[in-house]
């Protein structure tokens, strides 16, 4: 594995390391694990078996994306969140579509429902919670959805409440709007909520999204000529009847 120029031979070497426990091999496994789309599963398995492997997995998780991130974050979740909880709560999801495979596992293992209800929850935690909820709203067939996440009403309500105290940004606006759009489009039981809970949470989000400073932030942040702006205005914002995009909807109708 140390000297092979052939990917298949290196895979065999890594597979042998994945069956061992020697801590001295951790730096080598970390290095090959950076080529995570190919070596990620075996690297994660090898690190998970070793004392000190949790810290090594966390190091690797901060440096990989795509499928590699899926393998490593899932390994962190299997280990439990004792040493990685703070990172899982704030940085596990990078916005990639593949995050849907592990978002629900992160929320569960890291006890998101306990962290987000704190009055002093920090901005990174609140933003990442919005990202997790947005992913879990629409990852059916990949991972856990809100429907199968028992603390969904608590986490949704807490996120909406924290959002009202945050500085407006385009990313925060879009995450909240997509969550609200999902909640209104699905039957309450598909959102993990009762009808009363769902309606109350949606209203919490809409009050924030209709504030003038939040409207200004999203229009400035998205850029009116972008494809995403057109999609967001014509679909999500139109269904929610968000005032920030009413002129866009009217022009489309004409």
Number of strands: 0
Q: Which percent range describes the beta-strand content?
A: under 5%
The ordered string of helix (H) and strand (E) elements is HHHHHHHHHHHHHHH
What count of structural domains? 2
Q: What is the rounded Rg?
A: 21 Å
Distance between the termini: 64 Å
Largest sheet: none
General description of the model:
- The chain has 15 helices and no strands.
- It is mainly alpha-helical and 254 residues long.
- It folds into 2 domains: 79 residues; 174 residues, no CATH class.
- α2 packs parallel to α4, α9 packs parallel to α11 and α10 runs parallel beside α12.
- The N and C termini lie far apart (64 Å).
Secondary structure blueprint with pairings:
Blueprint: H1 7-18, H2 26-33, H3 36-48, H4 53-61, H5 66-79, H6 85-91, H7 103-109, H8 112-116, H9 123-137, H10 152-163, H11 170-185, H12 195-209, H13 212-222, H14 227-240, H15 246-253
Helix pairs in contact: 1-3, 2-3, 2-4, 3-4, 3-5, 4-5, 9-10, 9-11, 10-12, 11-12, 11-13, 11-14, 14-15
């Amino acid at each position: 594995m140390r000297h092979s120029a052939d990917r298949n031979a290196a895979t065999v070497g890594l597979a042998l390391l994945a069956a061992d426990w020697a801590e001295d091999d951790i730096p080598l496994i970390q290095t090959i694990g950076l080529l995570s789309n190919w070596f990620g599963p075996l690297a994660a398995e090898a690190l998970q078996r070793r004392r000190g492997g949790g810290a090594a997995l966390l190091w690797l998780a901060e440096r990989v994306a795509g499928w590699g991130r899926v393998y490593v974050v899932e390994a962190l979740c299997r280990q439990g969140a004792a040493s990685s909880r703070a990172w899982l709560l704030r940085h596990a999801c990078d916005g990639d579509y593949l995050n849907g495979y592990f978002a629900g596992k992160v929320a569960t293992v890291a006890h998101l429902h306990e962290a987000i209800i704190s009055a002093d929850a920090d901005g990174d935690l609140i933003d990442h919670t919005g990202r997790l909820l947005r992913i879990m709203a629409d990852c059916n067939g990949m991972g856990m959805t809100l429907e199968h996440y028992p603390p969904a009403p608590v986490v949704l309500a807490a996120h909406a409440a924290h959002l009202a105290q945050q500085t407006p940004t385009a990313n925060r606006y879009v995450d909240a709007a997509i969550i609200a759009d999902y909640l209104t489009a699905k039957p309450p039981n598909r959102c993990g909520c009762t009808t009363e809970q769902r309606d109350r949470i949606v209203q919490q989000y809409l009050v924030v999204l209709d504030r003038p400073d939040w409207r200004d932030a999203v229009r400035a942040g998205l850029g009116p000529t972008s494809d995403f702006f057109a999609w967001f205005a014509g679909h999500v914002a139109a269904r929610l009847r968000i005032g920030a995009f009413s002129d866009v909807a009217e022009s489309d109708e004409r």
